[in-house]
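Narrative of accomplishments. A recurring question from our advisory board has been how the design workflow behaves on a single, concrete structure rather than in aggregate. To address it, we present the structure tokens for one chain from the evaluation set, followed by the sequence designed for it. No filtering or post-editing was applied between the two.
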């Protein structure tokens, strides 16, 4: 396997420092967020692409730990239909890596016009989202040159964890501050089975990536990365949805990649899914899930021992490593996937 270092691989390695800078900058803003919490009841996330996957994590986090209903916006309601919706009591959270995607900017402006208070999560200091939101949570990922989002994605997750703390989640900032060191350890020892998983994925045309709860966001983002950089027909599914029919596509030529925290209420179901996949003669590759998931899968990459609410920030890292290595193994440039740019504009 080639040892050439891509920009994507370099930016994957920058994530611990990017997370430290981001947490240092954003944790002091908890009081600003708490002030908005007193004026709002529920949360509306506005995002696309990787940012939308981050919003899925935010939705689970706020509903499970902050007691707030959280939903994903349909931006076309604002930008295409021009509908007016009563958003009084709503906290609209716009997530955009650049802060310049017109659809997201316009939808956040629409939400404010409909009565919502607004938070912007972006890596773009001085961007329209950062400048116009009531509270701007500006991540400190630094410039991201590779098209596939890596450090901008994990710093968005960190910003969402800070948002949850500000909105009243009884979780520990001290635990959040452990995450950068945990990811640093993963990058130092990504797991001896990484290359073998990559080699087994070389000959496949599709894969199912599945998780549930907090880890569902990781499944979606991992599938997106495999599609973007490796041109693999990867489906990101909740394992509950997978069991309702799509599991029929999992076979010897279509492996399952299963992601889970090392503890929490969804781990047992993920292990049971791995056992079912293997029993049906299909490959199952795990990310995280501790010894339980490792024992049920053909191959498994470890993830740091973090509480479930923080696990998605680290679970995506092995998936990023798989994507980058697989792209190069297939002869593709992971830094510049065909047909994609850093900022996607939709109407």
């Amino acid at each position: 396997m080639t040892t050439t270092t891509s920009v994507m691989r370099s930016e994957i390695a920058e994530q611990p420092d990017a997370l430290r800078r981001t947490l240092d900058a954003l944790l002091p803003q908890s009081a600003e967020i708490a002030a908005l919490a007193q004026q709002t009841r529920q949360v509306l996330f506005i995002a696309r692409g990787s940012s939308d996957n981050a919003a899925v994590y935010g939705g689970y986090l706020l509903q499970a730990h902050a007691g707030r209903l959280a939903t994903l916006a349909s931006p076309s309601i604002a930008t295409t239909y021009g509908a007016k919706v009563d958003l009084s009591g709503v906290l609209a959270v716009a997530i955009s890596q650049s802060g310049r995607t017109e659809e997201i900017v316009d939808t956040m402006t629409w939400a404010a016009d409909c009565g919502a208070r607004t938070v912007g999560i972006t890596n773009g200091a001085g961007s329209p989202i950062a400048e116009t939101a009531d509270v701007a949570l500006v991540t400190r990922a630094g410039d991201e040159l590779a098209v596939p989002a890596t450090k901008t994605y994990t710093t968005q997750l960190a910003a969402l964890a800070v948002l949850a703390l500000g909105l009243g989640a009884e979780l520990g900032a001290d635990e959040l501050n452990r995450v950068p060191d945990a990811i640093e350890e993963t990058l130092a020892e990504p797991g001896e089975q990484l290359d073998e998983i990559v080699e087994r994925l070389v000959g496949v045309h599709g894969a199912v990536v599945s998780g549930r709860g907090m880890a569902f966001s990781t499944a979606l983002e991992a599938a997106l990365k495999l599609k973007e950089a490796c041109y693999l027909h990867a489906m990101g599914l909740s394992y509950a949805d997978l069991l309702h029919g799509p599991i029929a596509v999992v076979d010897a030529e279509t492996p399952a990649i299963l992601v889970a925290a090392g503890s929490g209420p969804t781990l047992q179901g993920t292990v049971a899914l791995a056992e079912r996949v293997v029993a049906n003669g299909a490959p199952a590759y795990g990310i995280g899930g501790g010894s339980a998931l490792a024992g049920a899968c053909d191959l498994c990459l470890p993830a740091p021992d973090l509480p479930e609410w923080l696990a998605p920030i680290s679970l995506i890292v092995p998936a990023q490593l798989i994507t980058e290595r697989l792209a190069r193994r297939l002869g593709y440039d992971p830094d510049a996937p065909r047909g994609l740019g850093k900022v996607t504009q939709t109407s």
